[in-house]
Amino acid sequence: MCGIVGVTCLPGKLENPAKIIRKCLERLEYRGYDSVGLASIFKNRIIVRKGKGKIHEVHKKLNFDGMPGNTVIGHTRWATHGAPSDNNAHPHLDCGSMVAIVHNGIIKNYLELKEKLILKGHIFRSETDTEVVAHLIEEYLNEGLEPYTAFKKTIKEIKGSYAIAAILVSEPDKIFFAKKDSPLIIGIGEGYNFVASDIPAFLDYTRKIIVVRDYEVGYITPTRVFIEDLFEEKPVDLSRRFRIISWTAEMAAKAGYPHYMLKEIHEQPRALRETINGLSSEIYEAAKMVIEARRVFIAAAGTSFHAGLVLDYYLNSLAGIPSIPLIASEYNKYCKSVKPGDLLIAISQSGETIDTLMAVREFKKREAKILTISNVIDSAIPRESHLTVYTRAGPEIGVAATKTFTTQVVVELAFIR
Ligand code: GLU
């Protein structure tokens, strides 16, 4: 989960489009906040400013508002592939800096595409799944395809989930977009148009929207919206698709739910789908660690501890493997007997839970192996573990854990399966 947004406007129609995009991103920060970036087109060139950190921190360093240009895209990230870092922050560029991309979702076949592109000479600057999109578009542009055709051909090749916005130097007043399984909304203004992951992003500028559907692709200009079906290539009749929003920005951020917790409960199908789709070979390595362990301990706190009790049940009753669940703060009681060959399974949504981190350190000192389940890529506990399996629930604003609990349980089931 993360937030994408883009605007394209007639010259002078909106004052400081980059500042507007920065403000839109602040409204989307609930979707992701480990890094942020903007790209704009100005005088035949793409300008990118991006970095690791919260929007206000990175803005203080890089001054997003100082970016010129009437076509701007932005991104607030919740990392799924590649740790939060300046290089992995979106937007991502092709080799020639002619294309900039922001993406929300997971490109499942990115490794395969990346290998092919590397063989063709493309140089990658990040560890993200997203960057392949920029290079693939570049590849098709080099083959002589028109920009929009190159974009569509790229979208047809990627698998997984995506809401993508792309700008191309050769089409300075267009933002190309595509959607599958991640949300994407168009905001229609007078002399400007927006695309965004969620409605509150642009509610200060327009209440007229179109909800983009799966497998739809198209572009916006300052005065036009074009959408078609990706495979049938049949333009969508937009007259039936306009909606007028009557909510406030705050209501819209909660997608009509009275509070975030309820919204997050309803996000569970998507969170589970993303988590299952994101699992790969690490799940077999995790299973091997469990099977080969001398003894299995499970350490966690709060709701994660309850996910630990579910794992304890799965291990004992389904896999016939005895396990010892412990509340992380009580690790001292057990660690004296810990020996090489033991395994500690640490469960922490944030990956920063201090008691769980202390348990990990103590068990590791005694040469136990550490296997972690976490929702935050490259956080403290994953960094100190031998192996981490990630849940991909996106950020959780509600204090009571909901979607992060169910995604933890599904990961547990995957490695004892
Ligand atoms: N998979 C992309 C990344 O890790 C997008 C992340 C997201 O949608 O949360 O950079």
Description:
The protein has 417 residues and is of the alpha+beta class. It has 14 helices and 19 strands. It has two domains: 250 residues, Aminohydrolase, N-terminal nucleophile (Ntn) domain (Glutamine Phosphoribosylpyrophosphate, subunit 1, domain 1, 4-Layer Sandwich); 157 residues, 3-Layer(aba) Sandwich (Rossmann fold). An eight-stranded antiparallel beta sheet has the order 3-2-4-1-10-9-11-14, covered by helices on one side. Strand 5 and strand 6 form a beta hairpin. The longest helix has 17 residues. The protein starts with a strand and ends with a helix. The mean pLDDT is 94. The structure holds glutamic acid.
Concise account of the structure shown:
With 417 residues, this protein is an alpha+beta fold. It folds into two domains: 3-252, Aminohydrolase, N-terminal nucleophile (Ntn) domain (Glutamine Phosphoribosylpyrophosphate, subunit 1, domain 1, 4-Layer Sandwich), CATH 3.60.20.10; 260-416, Glucose-6-phosphate isomerase like protein, domain 1 (Rossmann fold, 3-Layer(aba) Sandwich). The chain has helices at residues 17-28, 55-62, 110-119, 131-142, 147-157, 249-253, 260-266, 268-278, 282-292, 302-318, 331-335, 354-365, 380-384, 403-416, and strands at residues 3-9, 35-42, 45-52, 71-77, 92-93, 99-107, 160-168, 175-180, 185-188, 192-196, 208-211, 216-220, 225-229, 243-244, 296-300, 323-327, 343-348, 369-374, 387-390.
